[in-house]
Amino acid sequence: MSKPPARAPALRPDGFLVALFVAVALGLLYPGPGADRGVLHMPTVTGVGISLIFFLYGAALAPRRLAAGTRNWRLHLFTQLTTFAVFPLLGIVVVMLVRRLVPLDLLTGFFYLCAQSSTISSSVALTAVAKGNVPGAVFNATLSGLLGMFLTPALAGVMAHTSGHELPLAKAIVDIVTKLLLPFAAGQLSRPVLAAFLERYRGWVSYVDRSVIVLIVYAAFCQSTQAGVWSAQGAAVIALVAALTALLLVTAIGLTVRLARALGLSREDEIAAVFCGSTKSLANGVSIARVLFANHAALGMLVLPLMVYHPLQLIVCTWLARRYAART
């Protein structure tokens, strides 16, 4: 008697993505508690949370990780230019093409997405799955995160100025230094004391990181709902955001692959460049947005393209990593 066919393993939902969707839903349905003047005091809570994220980032970052792959300058230069030059140029193209179809705040959000640094954990993990240059991915993802603390606000400031948003430069610089750079530096100084502890409990550290992101998203959507931002937009606009974000991701991956091959990068370096150059950090993105656009009523719309991009990049890049691995 033949055995019944084995059942396929059930797909487990990503708890972080579920939490993000719940945060968005609560922000849309019950915005009062999480708005800037709500009983939860979210500006204070998220401000402390953002500083905590960058403190933990500094405490967890070992300088030797940067030193491990410093010699491959062609890969590093290509990846950083892709992240902070090619991607923003793609953002400008998107903005120019759809500027009459999409509200101004969403246009700013698209460019803000394109100005983000790379993910760290995801891009390195994807490179490992695809059997690429893991030390090169570690170096570039880490360097991208460090550069993003300076370049993302600078690029966002240029876009905000050209689109008519008020972004006080002096206040933005002070906020970036006090809420991002100083906590990061304090984390680096605390490494001799905290490094072993954070390594042992890095799963819990990840929960802290993701919890702060969920709180920032919740607060952003609460504030936008109270300001009447979402009631002024139709479902067609939101659908257009999703379609444009998917198109942007596919275009970025395809362009990165073609440029890497045109420059003659090895297969391993190509893989690292693709995953470091096409992924965008949700953690850094929503944290920096909360600092830069703290008083903007439409903060939820500004981070919406990045929130849509995040799950899409995980799905598409996981599929791509498996294809790379299958070809070895």
In short:
The chain is mainly α and 328 residues long.
What does this 3D model show about the protein?
There is one protein chain. The chain has one domain: Na+/H+ antiporter like fold (Up-down Bundle), CATH 1.20.1530.20. It contains 14 helices and no strands. It is 76% helix and 0% strand. 44% of the residues are buried. The longest helix is centred in the middle third of the chain and has 29 residues, at 134-162. It is mostly helical and 328 residues long. The protein has helices at 15-29, 42-60, 63-67, 73-98, 104-114, 121-129, 134-162, 169-189, 191-200, 202-226, 235-262, 267-278, 282-292, 299-326.
Largest sheet: none
- The overall strand count is 0
CATH architecture: Up-down Bundle
Q: Which structural class matches the secondary elements? A: mainly alpha
Strand composition percent: under 5%
Order of helices and strands: HHHHHHHHHHHHHH
Overall 3D shape: globular
Q: Give the C-level CATH assignment.
A: Mainly Alpha
The CATH topology, please? Na+/H+ antiporter like fold
Number of domains: 1
Percentage of residues in helical conformation: over 70%
Radius of gyration: 20 Å
Give the number of helices. Answer: 14
Spatial gap, N to C terminus? 39 Å
Low-confidence stretches: 5-11
Task: Summarize model confidence as the mean pLDDT.
Answer: 83
Oligomer: single chain
